[in-house]
């Protein structure tokens, strides 16, 4: 049985009475006495014991914001955040303190009793440390770790850190921990609460540091994508959820459908002046800029792609094209204002920059079910221009992807056939060879695609007269 030691309201001295009752004003009175601080620490540790429903932890859990008595708990709330408890040698005491502080943040939200910036930072770093206990769902104390996570998610407690100058340091520590500990043993509910803790720190932030973006985005590219599946899935869900687009069974906060209807009415009035696809593209760009993480991602890519301001300390800077490819699969809307920036790379004076952009776009444009060429026609035209690039390696790369376009995109065959017509007369033998191989490989996979095109058959026929390229299997 848990006991509380009753102290006199007058003298503050122990009067010999031992009672079992929820924490109340007599304990708060004793906690205000600096000269008895050490003894009050001992008494509070007893109150934290989880074996009884009358403990401090249970009292705070049951407390709501509408209870008029909660203001009396401010001295206790401050006392809980002292080093004696935050640095306590007992793992169990630290966990219970974390749960109590989380309840304090809930009860006092949105105005927590902690005002000193350094203290706030210390408290949240302490809470992050405690959340590491989530890594093992088989831990006997896991229910309390889960309670801590649920409480922090429900109240959006970490949003309090926005007021701190070094809030990004706290957020980086939190995100790093979540990606590190998430695993197969976690239930969908645990992962959902993880997302509920993390998402507001992106969507409601004025600024998201590149360091934090790096922590998130590195999990969706190789090798992490394959080696850390759970971290990848968490990062993927985070990107989707932060995009602002509706989830399955969920309505969008901003009525995108109504926005499209309005555009269609507008387009009816300006037919012949603007193409419908361009009109929709403009709306999508506005929509994208409105959403939370779009601006952050756009700014990041703008610095790396356009301004060339790569931060060598950020691993993701060396994987920008891989990142764009993965984001296009995860949440294409995030790239609405990013993909047009690639046109700059296609026209770069640096061969390697053009080759990298060509390889990425060839892969993205040619994939089955891709609608990028339709939605980004100007970028598509810029890409087709690279079939005539001054650099042989780039012309070869373009021609090598022709087979995928011919097989996957009937609507693009005319454009591809026109470019191959020029390349079959290329001055470089290797380019002419790749033209023939692209057509032959296409025929092997789907003969009708080639047989239905007189031009493609004619290209192969012409090249059989080319002594340098006719020796193919």
From TrEMBL:
This is Uncharacterized protein. It is found in: Nucleus. PANTHER family: ANDROGEN INDUCED INHIBITOR OF PROLIFERATION AS3 / PDS5-RELATED, PRECOCIOUS DISSOCIATION OF SISTERS 5, ISOFORM A. CDD domains: PDS5. One of its GO terms (cellular component) is chromatin. Its main location: nucleus. InterPro entries: ARM-like, ARM-type_fold, Pds5. One of its GO terms (biological process) is mitotic sister chromatid cohesion. It comes from the Eukaryota. Keywords: Cell cycle, Cell division, Mitosis, Nucleus. SUPFAM superfamilies: ARM repeat.
């Amino acid at each position: 049985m848990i006991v509380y030691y009753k102290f006199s309201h007058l003298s503050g001295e122990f009067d010999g009475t031992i009672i079992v009752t929820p924490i109340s004003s007599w304990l708060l009175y004793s906690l205000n006495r600096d000269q008895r601080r050490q003894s009050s620490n001992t008494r509070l540790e007893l109150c934290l014991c989880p074996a009884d429903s009358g403990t401090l932890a249970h009292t705070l859990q049951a407390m709501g914001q509408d209870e008029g008595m909660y203001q009396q708990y401010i001295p206790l709330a401050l006392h809980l955040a002292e080093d004696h408890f935050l640095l306590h040698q007992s793992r169990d005491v630290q966990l219970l303190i974390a749960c109590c502080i989380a309840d304090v943040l809930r009860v006092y939200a949105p105005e927590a009793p902690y005002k000193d910036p350094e203290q706030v930072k210390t408290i949240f770093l302490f809470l992050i440390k405690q959340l590491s206990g989530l890594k093992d769902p088989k831990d006997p104390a896991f229910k309390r770790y889960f309670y801590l996570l649920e409480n922090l998610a429900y109240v959006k407690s970490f949003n309090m850190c926005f007021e701190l100058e070094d809030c990004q340091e706290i957020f980086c520590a939190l995100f790093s921990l979540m990606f590190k500990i998430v695993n197969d043993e976690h239930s969908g509910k645990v992962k959902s609460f993880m997302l509920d803790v993390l998402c507001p720190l992106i969507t409601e932030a004025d600024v998201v540091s590149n360091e934090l973006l790096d922590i998130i985005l590195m999990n969706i590219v190789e090798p992490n994508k394959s080696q850390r599946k759970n971290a990848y899935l968490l990062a993927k869900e985070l990107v989707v959820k932060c995009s602002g687009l509706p989830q399955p069974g969920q309505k969008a906060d901003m009525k995108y459908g109504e926005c499209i209807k309005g555009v269609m009415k507008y387009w009816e009035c300006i037919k012949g002046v603007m193409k419908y696809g361009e009109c929709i593209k403009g709306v999508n760009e506005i929509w994208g800029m409105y959403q939370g993480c779009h601006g952050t991602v756009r700014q990041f890519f703008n610095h790396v792609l356009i301004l060339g301001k790569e931060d060598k300390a950020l691993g993701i800077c060396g994987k920008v094209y891989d990142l764009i490819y993965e984001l296009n699969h995860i949440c294409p809307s995030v790239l609405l204002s990013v993909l047009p920036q690639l046109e700059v790379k296609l026209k770069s004076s640096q061969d390697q920059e053009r080759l990298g952009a060509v390889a990425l776009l060839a892969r993205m444009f040619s994939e089955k079910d891709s609608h990028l060429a339709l939605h980004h026609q100007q970028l598509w035209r810029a890409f087709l221009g690279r079939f005539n690039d001054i650099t042989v390696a780039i012309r070869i790369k373009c021609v090598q992807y022709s087979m995928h376009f011919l097989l996957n995109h009937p609507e693009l065959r005319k454009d591809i056939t026109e470019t191959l017509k020029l390349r079959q007369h290329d001055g470089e033998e290797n380019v002419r060879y790749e033209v023939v191989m692209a057509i032959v490989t296409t025929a092997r996979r789907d003969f009708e695609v080639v047989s239905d095109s007189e031009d493609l058959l004619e290209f192969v026929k012409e090249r059989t007269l080319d002594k340098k390229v006719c020796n193919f299997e």
